[in-house]
Amino acid sequence: MEVEERSAAIGALSLTAREIEYISLAAIGFKNIEIADILSVTNSTVKKTLETVFSKLQARNRTNAVTVAFVHEIITPQKLAEISLKYKDSIDKIAK
Question: pTM for the full model?
Fold first, then answer.
């Protein structure tokens, strides 16, 4: 188990800033189609990017990936607030 945890930590270190935005928006609770709208990308881009994030974090699914990201402090409440503010206009459009 310790080796798996270390591997996940190494994968976490290799997440790009953009991948962190994707997993952060997923952590906030947005669906793929909503993330696509917020980031102005296609739904398939969101799906592929999240699959890459899952692989890097050695996560089985979205919930597991978000949990691993929080445990390894890839995403924090402060990071979520920062991303929410960065994409506030797009998020507000979705909320309507």
Answer: 0.86
Residue 8 contacts residue 58 (beta carbons within 8 Å)? yes
Closest-CA residue to 66 (of 80, 83, 78, 45): 80
Domain, as residue range, for 79: 2-95
pLDDT digits (tens, 9 = 90+) for 40-90: 999 999 999 999 999 999 999 999 999 999 999 999 999 999 999 999 999
If one counts the domains in the chain, the total is 1
CATH of the domain at 81: 1.10.10.10
> To which residue do tokens 């309507």 refer?
96
- DSSP secondary structure, 44-60, as one string: HHHHHHHHHHHHHHT-S
